[in-house]
Each structure stands twice: as structure tokens, then as C-alpha cells.
């Protein structure tokens, strides 16, 4: 099935030649007038680099300060550091100094893109109201950070970022959306025949497996492949140490899905390039694979979830649960905790249903929490099967730690999912339109980069 949710917000990474590479081409052509010259971008030519290249002088872009002037607008080192702090706060593992240096340069390239997008909106007299930015900031505070805006302001200050940095990112995304709504979306057309054909394919695929994958894509040319492959391996190392896949995808991925943390949505493996489909085959939820080499670069894949096309999945059932928990006194040994957990589990089994569990819990000094809207899919994988096998009034095996105490879940109700009929005709048309808008938006941004005047300090 095609992606059910597509994104229009783009957070892409600048692609281009380094200062050293440009100097190399220029110097080599000056020294060898007979060598084939690179054609201009407008003529879509092929850059030709002669054999036996000689580097004149040293110019390492990795050692310049993170400050740039983009068409007259300044990106300061503070801008970069504040955005870096926001990214690092999302990672459990502490990246190495080398990883942080690479991330800092990546963020600078992101900020250049962001600046170009804001400038393009301004050039077309497309305004983003401050009130809109503030409203979005409030939603981000509540939905993403689970804090009110004032608490988020304080949190950003503590980690070395700032509300202004996050609001600038919001403004950039809103400005770019305004540009796309005017200059791209009106010129994207999808016929009803295309939509019907796509829906027919979905129905034919009913019962086959589909995957919800996350992807970090790093573009590479023949010359940059070794370095890009090494960068991909270092990203995987950080992810395996507990780094946030979503945060790394937002800052590193060069795919249009970077804005949603690399989420590709629900897809069948047949929709992927052969290399990616082969790599994803056999993945279990939460597993990584990569770097996977493709014709355009390297991908890191992360399996978020798996299901069957247009088939009701028991894990989409809504469960009504009661969580009953007890704490262990300080100094409790493992043997004591195991014995106490066994007694607790037995008492819960004998509670005879959810109507009586509160009274039993009170006798045991246990705490009870009720939640009637728990989707089985959202529970830890090791608990899903156990809970879906329960009848009403039965409890899960006890789980927990000596430090956090032990708890059980009692099933008080279950609403099974209906058969998924898939996206509607209108939703499918919107998906295809968004996909085409994303591709044209990538080309649009490449043009802005090509024409930009950028000075580095």
C-alpha cells in the first residue's frame, strides 16, 4: 500500500561542492586548458575532472567557524549552537567530539536551507504572521515536549538553546509551505484514473505484509562514497548507543521525510528499491539495518512496525486496563522481591475481576491506575501478546524492577478493530499529490541553493 501519510514540510540538507573541490576544479582547468570544462548547471552538463589532480593550497571547510552570510542574512555561531543543543537533548547517548563537529556543520547547512526558504517567501511577499508562529510553538510545546510554553522556554534555556531558535525553525517551515502552496501545488495534477489504479493495486495486495519504516538517507557521488559510508556507519554507532533515530533523521537525512524523523509511512517492500527491500526483509520491530548502498547514496533503515494490508490487526484493539503496582522497601533483596512479586501476582489473580480489584489492592497497600483507551500496539512488544491472550478480569504476568516496584495489568475491556478498508479516494489522491509536490519542492530548493551568494567567516 502506498504511504498513508505523506509530508509536505521539508527540512533538507544542502548538497554541493566544498570550497576545496571547487578550487581544485578551477586550478586544474587553468593548468590544463585542454581538459574538458564543466558545463553550467543551466545546461545540465557533466562536471569533468582531469586525471592527476593537484591541490594548490590548503582549504579545509571543516575548520572554519560556523558563521555564514546567505544573500546578506547572517547565520551566527550562536544560531548553530542553539540548534545543536536542541538536537543533542533528544539523544540519550553522548556523541563523540568528532560526531558533534559533523553535526554542527550539518546544522549550518540546514540553517542555510532555512534562510533560503524564508528569503524566498519574503521575495514573493508571502508573510508568516508572528501570531501563527506563536500558536504553532504552543502546539509543539504541548504535543512534542508535553509542557506549557513557559515551561518549554525555561527548558530550552537550560539545555543551551532558546525559544527564538525553535520559533525560527517553525517560521522557516511555514514560509516554505506558503511558497509551495503558491508555486508548486497548483501545478500538480492527479487524474482519477491514476487514483483508481492505485486503489485497485491495494485491494489486490490485501493480506500481504506492509512495513512502517524509518529511513536516514545520505546522498553520495562516486567521489564521496567512501566518506559518506563512513559517516553512515558512525550514525549507526550512535543510534545503537541509544541515540534518537528521529533526531538523527531530522538533522542528517537528505530525503523529504526528514521533517517527520524519517518516517516513510506504511509501505510494502515491493515499493522499495531492490537493495532496501532485501535489507528490510526479516527485520523485527525496533531493529536497524545499514548502511545500505543504493545508486544515489546510502540508507539506514529502522523498522517501526509491521502489519498486513487491509486486514484487521489485533494489535489495533483498544484495551481498558487497570494497572496495580506495589513498591519494594529500600534494601529489598532479589530473593525477597521475587517472593513478594509471586504473592502479589497470586492475590491479583484471585481478585475476580476489575470490580473487586480496588478493594484487594487497598488491602495489599497497592496503587491502582485506570486507563480505558490503551491501544495494544502502543504497549511494549513483550506485553502485547500476553495482554491480547487475556480474558476479561485476568491479569498479566508481574513485571518491573526492585527499584521501580512490581506491577500487573488487568484486562477490563477490549474493543477489537474493524477490517481496515484503506484510504478513501480523496485520501489516496492527496497522497499522490503530496508525493509529487515533495519532488518538485526538492528541485525548487536546489535552484535556490545554486543561485545563492554565501560567504563564510
How many strands, what sense, and barrel or not for the largest sheet? 4 strands, antiparallel
Calculate Rg over CA atoms.
27 Å
CATH topology of the largest domain: Triger factor/SurA peptide-binding fold
- Strands, count: 11
Average pLDDT, all residues: 79
Globular, elongated, flat, extended or rod-shaped: what is the shape? globular
Strand order of the largest sheet: 4-3-6-5
The CATH class of the largest domain is Mainly Alpha
Give the SSE string.
Answer: HEEHHHHHHEHHEHEEEHHEHEEHE
Count of separate DSSP helical elements: 14
- Total domain units: 3
Which structural category fits the helices and strands?
A: alpha+beta
Given as residue ranges, the uncertain stretches (5+ residues, pLDDT < 50) are 1-43, 59-64
- How much of the sequence lies in strands comes to 15-25%
Gross CATH architecture of the largest domain: Orthogonal Bundle
For CATH, the homologous superfamily of the largest domain is named as Porin chaperone SurA, peptide-binding domain
Q: For the terminal residues, how far apart are their CA atoms?
A: 48 Å
Amino acid at each position: 500500500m502506498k504511504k498513508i501519510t505523506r509530508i509536505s514540510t521539508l527540512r533538507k540538507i544542502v548538497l554541493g561542492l566544498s570550497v576545496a573541490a571547487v578550487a581544485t576544479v578551477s586550478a586544474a582547468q587553468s593548468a590544463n586548458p585542454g581538459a574538458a570544462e564543466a558545463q553550467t548547471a543551466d545546461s545540465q552538463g557533466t562536471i569533468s575532472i582531469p586525471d592527476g589532480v593537484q591541490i594548490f593550497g590548503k582549504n579545509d571547510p571543516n575548520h572554519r567557524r560556523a558563521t555564514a552570510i546567505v544573500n546578506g542574512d547572517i547565520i551566527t555561531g550562536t544560531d548553530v549552537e542553539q540548534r545543536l543543543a536542541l538536537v543533542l537533548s533528544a539523544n540519550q547517548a553522548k556523541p563523540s567530539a568528532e560526531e558533534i563537529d559533523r553535526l554542527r556543520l550539518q546544522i549550518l547547512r540546514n540553517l542555510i536551507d532555512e534562510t533560503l526558504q524564508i528569503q524566498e517567501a519574503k521575495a514573493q511577499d508571502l508573510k508568516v504572521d508572528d501570531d501563527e508562529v506563536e500558536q504553532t510553538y504552543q502546539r509543539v510545546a504541548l504535543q512534542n515536549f508535553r509542557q506549557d510554553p513557559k515551561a518549554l522556554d525555561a527548558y530550552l534555556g537550560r539545555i543551551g538553546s532558546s525559544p527564538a531558535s525553535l520559533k525560527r525553525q517553525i517560521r522557516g517551515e511555514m514560509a516554505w509551505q506558503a511558497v509551495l502552496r503558491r508555486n508548486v501545488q497548483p501545478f500538480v495534477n492527479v487524474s482519477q484514473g491514476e487514483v483508481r489504479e492505485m486503489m485497485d493495486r491495494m485491494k489486490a495486495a490485501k493480506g500481504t505484509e506492509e512495513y512502517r519504516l524509518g529511513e536516514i538517507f545520505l546522498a553520495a557521488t562516486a567521489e564521496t562514497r567512501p566518506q559518506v559510508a563512513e559517516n553512515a556507519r558512525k550514525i549507526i554507532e550512535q543510534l545503537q548507543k541509544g541515540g534518537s533515530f528521529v533526531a538523527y533523521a531530522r538533522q542528517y537525512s537528505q530525503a523529504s521525510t526528514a521533517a517527520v524523523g524519517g518516517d516513510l509511512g506504511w509501505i510494502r517492500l515491493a515499493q522499495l528499491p531492490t537493495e532496501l527491500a532485501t535489507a528490510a526483509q526479516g527485520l523485527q520491530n525496533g531493529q536497524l539495518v545499514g548502511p545500505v548502498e543504493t545508486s544515489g547514496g546510502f540508507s539506514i533503515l529502522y523498522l517501526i512496525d509491521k502489519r498486513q494490508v487491509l486486514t484487521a490487526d489485533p494489535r489495533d484493539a483498544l484495551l481498558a486496563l487497570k494497572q496495580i503496582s506495589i513498591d519494594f522497601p529500600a534494601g529489598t533483596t532479589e530473593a525477597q522481591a521475587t517472593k513478594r512479586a509471586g504473592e502479589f501476582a497470586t492475590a491479583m489473580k484471585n481478585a475476580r475481576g476489575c470490580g473487586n480489584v480496588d478493594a484487594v489492592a487497598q488491602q495489599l497497600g497497592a496503587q491502582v491506575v485506570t486507563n480505558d483507551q490503551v491501544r495494544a500496539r502502543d504497549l511494549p512488544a513483550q506485553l502485547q501478546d500476553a495482554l491480547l491472550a487475556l480474558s476479561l478480569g485476568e491479569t498479566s504476568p508481574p513485571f518491573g524492577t526492585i527499584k521501580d516496584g512490581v506491577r500487573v495489568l488487568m484486562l477490563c475491556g477490549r474493543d477489537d478493530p474493524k477490517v481496515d478498508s484503506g484510504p478513501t479516494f480523496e485520501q489516496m489522491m492527496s497522497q499522490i499529490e503530496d508525493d509529487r509536490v515533495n519532488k518538485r519542492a526538492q528541485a525548487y530548493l536546489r535552484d535556490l541553493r545554486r543561485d545563492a551568494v554565501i560567504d563564510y567567516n
